[in-house]
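So, can you check this record?

>
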Amino acid sequence: MDGYIRICDVEKYYGNGSNVTKAVDRVSFHVEQGEFVGVMGASGSGKTTLLNMLSTIDRVTAGHIFYGDTDITELSEDGLSEFRKRNLGFVFQDYNLLDTLTIEENIVLAMTIHRKGKAEIKERVNAMMGMLGIREIAGKFPYQVSGGQKQRCACARALINEPKLLLADEPTGALDSRSAQTLLEMFTRMNEKLGATIFMVTHDAFSASYCGRILFLKDGKIFHELIRAGRNRRVFLNEILDVLSLTGGELSDVR
């Protein structure tokens, strides 16, 4: 998957007959390789629907989504499954870890699906756990560790196969303030040091202030865009809050 992601006049409808809801309304934008893009909007604005279409979890009603030269709206279910496995990483609010596996085994599982050799798996998993600060809990089960540690495990699992795009849906929603800040700083390192492209949906202005660019959705449409462009995070956070206050978006506590 080379080049950037292009979203072209994408629409998504739910329901049928006289009971149709337009969740996304002719949205177009692009994401460059190595960008950290956030999407904000009030509940019902279409932000999660948009992420679900980008992540191949949901199909578009109209329009096209290109990853490089690949139009994912034209792929078969088998093609989508293969594309997802090779190119995408996912971090969700509820972690989606398997409680019957240890922290290390949850990460290893993601690599075994790709049929990697045992030596390579061991080396890469150990390095990833070290980078994310969870090596000391490798043998523990998810129910034995904190929410922040679970989320770091989820990030390790998402990154272990070096995906072209990391998709994060409200990744700090279940975390306390300190764990959320740790996770967001880790996203920043992944973006800056590893060149990871990150697309994050959030309602939280503090989380969004870590992004390089933010798209604001309202009634299924993009109505505003903010670009950080080197400004410090506090200044960017205040700009985000200004946009949200003017448009009736959800204001979260500023940490």
About this structure: The mean pLDDT is 89. Residues 6 and 78 are 22 Å apart (CA to CA). Strands lie at 5-16, 19-31, 36-40, 62-67, 70-71, 88-92, 165-169, 197-201, 213-218, 221-227. The helical segments are 47-54, 77-87, 103-112, 118-131, 147-159, 177-193, 205-208, 233-247.
